[in-house]
Amino acid sequence: MKVAVFSTKAYDRQFLAAANSDHQHELVFLEPRLNRDTAILAAGFPAVCVFVHDQVDASTLQILAANNTRLVALRCAGFNNVDLKAAAQLGITIVRVPAYSPYGVAEHAVGLILSLNRKIHRAHNRVREGNFSIDGLLGFNLNGRTVGIVGTGKIGLILGHIMKGFGCNLLAYDVYQNPELEMIGGKYVELPELFANADIISLHCPLIAETHHLINEEAIAQMKSGMMLINTSRGGLIDTQAVIEGLKSGKIGYLGVDVYEQESELFFEDLSGEIIQDDIFQRLTTFPNVLITGHQAFFTAEALSNIAETTFANITDFDNGRPCGNEIRHQPQTEAKVLVN
Ligand code: NAD
Predict the structure, then answer these.
(1) Which of 36, 97, 125, 221 to pair with 329, CA 20 to 30 A apart?
(2) Are residues 260 and 157 in the same domain?
(3) Is residue 339 over pLDDT 70?
(4) Eight-state DSSP code of residue 3
(5) Active-site residue among 75, 96, 263, 309?
(6) Based on the domain organization, do 223 and 313 belong to the same domain?
(7) Is 341 within the bounds of a domain?
(8) Contact 234 CB / ligand 1 (< 6 Å)
(9) Is 263 tagged catalytic?
(10) Out of 25, 234, 261, 309, which one is annotated catalytic?
């Protein structure tokens, strides 16, 4: 099948080309993101393949449909960037990769925790400059501390296992309780109790209407002074302005984020020669106790292999007329509730 692969970087090409050797689809790699202006590039391709920041909205889908595209294969789990209703009306099938790197994301969250606690990012810079002073690098033992996990699905549960290994106590909040988390000693509590007692809070729930700005001024007011906040889930879980106020007051002692609400304007591109216009993001980068990575928590070799293999299995199912378990269909209640999965 001819597939126009949008938003490709060198690493995507490497893993996609390797996984395609078992499928032999005809791939054309395109650097631009898919949107209404670039959709014409897919003319003549029955399938397109996209990532998290491609805009698969109604007008883009109309152009794709008019040029005989019948399949959009997402190389990611979230489908907030797809107008499922328009796709259904236009007869375009949407498939995705529901899970690809829960260990990688949980391990990255731990990386942020360790770096922030022991100030490894600052120590690295000091030593490079010949400054071997350890003033200001004081950390704390993780052993005996309380970690609050919001969202105990695949990633949150793995984080629980890892932090238990450090000797931490686990508090958790989820709309569905996961017995495995309780089996390793985790205790489910309501959010106010988690906020009040956790030394470290790590977010692993999806971004939906109910969780949008879950961490806001009111939530921060309930937290322990000097606590650590980690977000590897989705930027919109956090009201960034409220978090900046929390950092300024010292209520938030450490912030580690891999995601940012307005990240689509920034992440995955080299903007080192540009003037960044986002003043809120720029303010975040000025704090010594803030560590930001650019949506790389998923970015492991294992994840890229899984993404590529599942993507081509999905495309091959479609090509052969087989039902695909990873198809996403339009559901009116999903449309209303899901902002970002
Ligand atoms: P998952 O579906 O296995 O787990 C999500 C959990 O959140 C579920 O247990 C669900 O019940 C819970 N949840 C739903 N609504 C909730 C609410 N209102 N309050 C609290 N919990 C709620 O998902 P996962 O694979 O563990 O992924 C978690 C999140 O990680 C995803 O939603 C995605 O946004 C993010 N993610 C980030 C990266 C990255 O590279 N940074 C990569 C993959 C996934």
Answers:
(1) 36
(2) yes
(3) no
(4) E
(5) 263
(6) no
(7) no
(8) yes
(9) yes
(10) 234
Give the DSSP H/E element, type plus range, for residue 193: helix 191-197
Asked whether the beta carbons of 65 and 88 are under 8 A apart, the reply is no
pLDDT grade, residue 165 (50/70/90)?
very high
- What backbone phi and psi angles, to 5 degrees, belong to 105? -70, -45
170 and 316 belong to one structural domain? no
Q: What is the pLDDT of residues 180-232, one digit of tens each?
A: 999 999 999 999 999 999 999 999 998 888 999 999 999 999 999 999 999 99
| Ligand 1, atom 31, residue with closest C-alpha | 206
- Going 131 to 132 to 133 to 138, the CA torsion angle's sign is positive
Residue 134, CA distances (Å) to 9, 112, 227, 288 in order: 39, 20, 22, 15
What lies within 8 Å, CB to CB, of 320 at 6+ separation is none
Token pair 């898919």 in the structure block, residue:
34
Q: Identify the CATH number of the domain in which residue 314 sits.
A: 3.40.50.720
Q: Which alpha helices (DSSP H) does 43-101 contain, by range?
A: 58-66, 84-90
Q: Which helix (H) or strand (E) holds 169?
A: strand 169-173
The answer, yes or no, to whether any atom of ligand 1 lies below 6 A from the CB of 210, is yes
d(Cα 74, Cα 83) in Å, to the nearest integer? 13
Residues 118 and 142 sit within 8 Å (Cβ to Cβ) = no
- 248 phi, psi to nearest 5 deg: -65, -35
Closest CA to 200 of 173, 224, 233, 234: 224
How far, in Å, CA of 216 to CA of 145, rounded?
23
Longest dimension (CA), the chain: 65
CB-CB contact of 181 with 170 (8 Å): yes
Contact indicator for 326, 314 with CB cutoff of 8 Å: yes
Instruction: Look at the chain and count its residues.
Output: 341
- Kindly state whether residues 206 and 260 are assigned to the same domain: yes
What is the Å distance from ligand 1's center to 70 Cα? 29
Distances (CA, A) of 77 to 60, 222, 260: 20, 32, 17
- The model's pTM is 0.91
Q: Which of 319, 310, 313, 305 minimizes the C-alpha distance to 47?
A: 319
